[in-house]
Amino acid sequence: MNLAWRDVQHGLGRFILTCVGLSLLLGVVMGMVGIYRGLVAEALGLVRSAGADAWVVEAGKRGPFAESSRLPRDTRDAIAVHAGVAAAGAVVYQTVEFPYRGTNLRVFIVGAQIGRPGSEVAIEEGRPILKSRTEVVADRKTGLALGERIRIGRDDFTVVGLTANATSSGGDPVLMMTLRDAQIVQWQFDPSAVRRETARDAPAGGSSDLVSAIIVRMRPDASSDGVIGSIARWKHLTAMTAAQQEEILTRSVIERARRQLGLFAVILLVVSTVVIGLIVYTMTMDKKKAIATLKLIGAPDRVIVSLILQQALAMGLVGFAIGATLIRLAKDYFPRRVVLETSDTAILLGIIVMVCLIASIFGVRSALKIDPASALGG
Amino acid sequence: MMASPRPIVAPRPVVEIARLSKTFGTGATKVPALIDIDLTIGTGEVVGLIGPSGSGKSTLLNCIGCITEPDAGTIRLDGRAIFDGKWLIGDLRRLRLETIGFIFQFHNLLPFLSAWENVAIVRTLMGESPERAKARAMELLGYLQVDHRADALPSKLSGGEAQRVAIARALANEPRIILADEPTAALDSERAAIVIDLMKQVATERDAAVIVVTHDEKIFSRLDRMVHLRDGRIVEVVS
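^ inputs. structure came back:
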């Protein structure tokens, strides 16, 4: 007969309620980890989907994601013929908001040259951009529908394709268009602004044939370091590998958010430990008379310790299972992406087991201190 | 399960106490709880420890039950000297498990176990298989005529039924000594008499010694001996 199980059965409703309460706490911990993973996935998704071997940006900059970068578009032509380069494509990145269904829709515009690196995208529904103007591919998170027409700036665009999980490091859904369209959106001034600039005898916006970065694919036999070094030396540009770009993103763009979320997760785990500890302690104190009786009739300490540990572990594991289920059911309703990785779940499970064992210490200590003589008398 | 007539034999000592003393506190708060207690209790005997509050009854019961270590004197349980410096807490607990049965004022059944499980747990703790432990528990519940309530939780048992189950648990380890702390305090006269007679029957049939701490005058006449304590000393022994 398992004393822990029998005691749980005896107070099943209370045990389940405790587990549900705990599961909400553990669900938030899992959510925090999932949000962090989502942050990384969102931040790196765009970089990885570009399939770049190297990124070329404005000299002295760490763009195009960590900071702004501007290059003349024809830089691409010079890079494309550089030794060791197989293909190159110019891209423009910018965040815009435009009126949509009575509110403002915030998107991350990716302008790329059709058929060149940076323009490939995994279409879930519809087709890729074929026309050189006024077609866009939107991420599902924009809420845009296939065939829907939207107005950005002075132009109308038609949604011809839909993607999934294409977002910027800030979590804004991606709206993909041709490079030229993106440049127009970026540089096309409002008529009143044009009039003002004309009045002060300044060309409105200066040169508009600028891009954010050049995405480079190398020949299989080319040396990555050689090509990057050569571009930096001879073209007076900054070039970096895809790995370096990812590192910049993770270290600069999402580092603070990562630490913030990590700290929250640690605080919540400490809170969980305290909560489990208090619950275990209370459960132990509720059984004070039963424990004293067990000791009096000769039950060894291991029976009593095992009773407390098994209940603490059962509570932690059931709470964890409910929490994991809840967060899996709720993850798609979060405004930012939540990525629940099996490895994180396994690590968290291990941590919860440790937390339960640590939290049981006070309960076990108090149980071992219970005087068997207290079972005698009233 | 009534015993067949047995030959009359002299009681064999099960509890032998010599010059036992126990003091609580130190300095100004020093309180002598037991002073030079000498007592021998044999098999088949039901002995009552009687006295006012603070007379040392519970301390004496705790010393015999291997719970409280005396300051001086000796205690021999079933021929074995305890508290002689060779016993660890775990050993004493094992000795309790194998030698002593406890009966409490409020039965102290584990609330999350059924009646038969409350009895069987003792056998399980002794290392017996669950099946054998259950069989033994059912046998004891039958002996105490409460086997029809075997599956009931303690909260569903009447006071008398719960006390019978508690007695069954006290007998589960086939103890040489049964220590009962106010076992009839929560029972009416009729049920109190039944419980004491039951303990007497158990003591006789199973060669056990029963020590009862009680204030309950209605059971005095049913005890074999009454040991009166006052201020930690035995002041009178009435047979």
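The CA atoms of residues 112 and 153 of chain B lie 7 Å apart. Strands of chain B lie at 13-24, 31-42, 46-50, 72-77, 80-82, 100-103, 177-181, 209-213, 225-230, 233-238.
thumbs up if we can close this ticket
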